[in-house]
Amino acid sequence: MRFIDEATIEVHAGDGGNGCVSFRREKFVPKGGPDGGNGGKGGDVLLVGDSQKNTLLDLLHQRTFRVKKGGNGAGKGKDGAASPTVEIAVPLGTEVWELSDDDGRLFVGEVLKDGQKLLLAAGGRGGKGNAHFASSTMRVPRFAQPGEDGEMKKLRLVLKVIAQVGLVGLPNAGKSTLISVLSAARPKVAGYPFTTLNPNLGIMAGGDYERLIIADIPGLIENAHQGSGLGIRFLKHVERTEVIVMLVSVKDRDDEALLLHDYQTVMGELNAYNPQLVKRVKLVLLSQTDTLPAERVKELLAALSPKIAEQGKRLLMAVSSTSGTGIEELKGTLEKLVISSPS
Ligand SMILES: Nc1nc2c(ncn2[C@@H]2O[C@H](COP(=O)(O)OP(=O)(O)OP(=O)(O)O)[C@@H](O)[C@H]2O)c(=O)[nH]1
Ligand SMILES: [Mg+2]
Asked: Is the N end or the C end of the chain the one with fewer CB atoms within 10 Å?
């Protein structure tokens, strides 16, 4: 499925129905009183959070949402029917911005929970019929109110995936392979850089956390913040993530200084996007450790741990997705980190 995380849509809420001018006609009563009913309310356009969705792809096919006008009032005091609302289902984590004609953006809101609704455009009020205006001083109102126009808006929707754990690292670090070991996700894995072009989501089951959502995002390279490689715009998907895990592959990098350099490169890119992300890197994984003797992995862990420790706030562990070494321990650590982090 194609992953679409931004879309522009136009929404037209329903106009209110018009009020009616009518007079009662009864046998033997030459002039009946006013009996024009009210117009019905125009339907609203709402956004609804839907946990079954994970892309804004639908919105590429349908970009305009128009709600019917409310029914007009009629004689004999009949009110027009309200027109039904239109609901647009979107993945959780969708933000809405209203676009103005001068390209300005105004934050409207976001949906974070299943079934949560956000009003995008309000339908117009129905107009009052002439019966409404009858009074002792106004016995024969020959007018009624027109319905109010529904709101019309141009909106930009931005999906920021909600995951508890985000995987970051250089291309080929083994992020996609790791998510396939931790969850049922089966993203594309290959021995060339930038295999992952769109974020992959995986759900890790088990333990106290029934559902721990992990996001694997495209690889970062030096100067990604200046547009190198795939850039850093994908980092928005770990912006809400409390626990960021960085993978540093030891494959063909059996050297403390090289590994530290790789670590710092990725940190630099996170920092350029948003310094808050740096603080959330709670765990660094030496990955693909099956390519080195176990003894050597221990040495590297011991040498690098103090350099990345950040006063005990950042852990260093070793894993191999291929051999499975360290994976069970990693699962337990991820749970603990997620549970202990504020959300
Ligand atoms: N030996 C070994 N190879 C691994 C391991 N994990 C991943 N690989 C290999 O490393 C290569 C890159 O793996 P990916 O999972 O695609 O790496 P990635 O970090 O998702 O890469 P991008 O999507 O390009 O950023 C593939 O050839 C994998 O088979 C591991 O634990 N051990
Ligand atoms: Mg990948």
From this structure: N
Ligand 1 atom nearest the C-alpha of 216 is 20
pTM: 0.73
Distance 172 CA to ligand 2 centre (A): 7
Question: 219 φ, ψ to 5°?
Answer: -65, 150
Domains of the chain, each with CATH number or no CATH: 6-159 (2.70.210.12), 165-340 (3.40.50.300)
> Tens digit of pLDDT for each residue in 82-141?
999 999 999 988 999 999 988 799 999 999 999 999 999 999 999 999 999 999 898 889
The residue whose C-alpha atom lies closest to atom 3 belonging to ligand 1 is 288
Ligand 1-lining residues (CB < 6 angstroms): 169, 171-177, 189-191, 193-196, 218-219, 287-288, 290-291, 320-322
Distance 218 CA to ligand 2 centre (A): 6
Report the distance separating Cα 178 and Cα 311, nearest Å.
27
Tens of pLDDT along 13-69?
Answer: 999 999 999 999 877 666 789 999 999 999 999 999 998 887 898 898 889 999 999
292, 325 Cβ separation under 8 angstroms: no
C-alpha 71, offset from chain centre: 35
d(CA 331, CA 282): 14
